[in-house]
Design goal:
82% of the residues lie in helices and 0% in strands. By secondary structure, it is mainly alpha-helical. α3 crosses α4, α4 packs across α6 and α6 runs antiparallel to α8. The radius of gyration is 21 Å and the shape is flat.
């Protein structure tokens, strides 16, 4: 590696890190928060086996798990304007990522709810709780411990998947790397540097996941 490449990498590091902190991370947090809310609603509906809504939830999960995330981004950003719905790039990315996360995370939450002993439901009903109250106060806190690892894995995957937002002109970390590579003609090293930053983000989050799992293990029944 010659001095020119080292200088390019040194100069570009901040130009990659700033979009990573100001766009990639906020995009991830917003999308995951909205996606988790969608997932929770879907999981509760499917667990309760609500007529009609259960079928709607199943179709939703089927569509968003069965189609590529990149296609979903293109449909929302490039496709919706053809029917009169125009959205900016960042909101389009948030919507696409949230809907995608909602489909995958709902299955993790639903499986975790199913793992809670049926006696927990019956105990809540015996003291006069409604279904939603039993879910909120008894079942979901227990299910969360089971769902935590797959949900956090989904969160880490989302950090990496945000690189796809560059395809709809969101100026996040990977798009910054693309622009610098086009200007310097050093795509290999620039993309490697971007990959290293993504790896650093994922490593920090993995350590947080391990810490969280240890904390939750102390509260097992």
């Amino acid at each position: 590696m010659d001095d020119r490449i080292l200088q390019i990498l040194e100069d570009s590091f901040t130009q990659l890190l700033i979009p990573g902190l100001t766009v990639t991370i906020p995009l991830t947090l917003l999308s995951f928060a909205f996606g988790l809310a969608i997932a929770l609603v879907l999981a509760v509906i499917r667990t309760a086996n609500v007529p009609v809504l259960t079928n709607v939830a199943r179709v939703y999960v089927w569509i968003f798990r069965g189609t590529p995330l990149l296609v979903q981004l293109f449909v929302i950003f490039f496709g919706l304007p053809s029917i009169g719905v125009t959205l900016d790039a960042f909101p389009s990315a948030v919507i696409a990522f949230s809907l995608n996360v909602g489909a995958y995370a709902s299955e993790a939450i639903r499986a975790a709810i199913s793992a809670v002993p049926k006696g927990q439901f019956e105990a809540g009903y015996c003291v006069g709780m409604s279904y939603l109250t039993v879910m909120r106060r008894i079942v979901l806190p227990q299910a969360f411990r089971t769902a935590y690892p797959p949900l956090f894995n989904e969160f880490i995957s989302l950090v990496k998947n945000t690189s796809l937002a560059s395809s709809i002109t969101v100026f996040e970390m990977f798009m910054s790397a693309q622009r610098i590579a086009a200007r310097t003609y050093e795509p290999f090293w620039l993309y490697l540097e971007a990959a290293a930053i993504y790896l650093a983000f994922s490593t920090v989050l993995s350590q947080i996941q391990v810490w969280g799992e240890k904390r939750l293990a102390k509260y097992e029944y």
